[in-house]
Amino acid sequence: MHLEQIDLFDLAFNNASIGMAIVSLEGKFMKANHSLCEMIGYEERELLSLDYMHITHPDDLEESIIHIQRLLDKQIPSFHIEKRYIGKSGEVIWMLLTVSLVHDQCGKPLFFFLSFKI
What is the distance between the alpha carbons of residues 56 and 87, in angstroms, rounded to a whole number? Predict the structure, then answer.
């Protein structure tokens, strides 16, 4: 098999040791890798029915919203924060989150790309 025949992004995304997700502009999970699912205890299909607010610790939600708005307003290209998430079984999980906003060729925002490390 030649390298051109392999979807390198898909291969890297699905096999990464860090958690990764693609989230819509409205905050809904569109894709999540196996590592993220293991970190928070949800299966991908379960995460795809949720938005990031559902798994964000309530005390960290306002800060997340502020950073996301700054991304959308083009004030910052990305952000990194340490924040708490609520796992499927209710436990609090501290993670280092990095968020970037992905744009199309005309500069229109498409989705958020997130990476997570415990």
Answer: 9
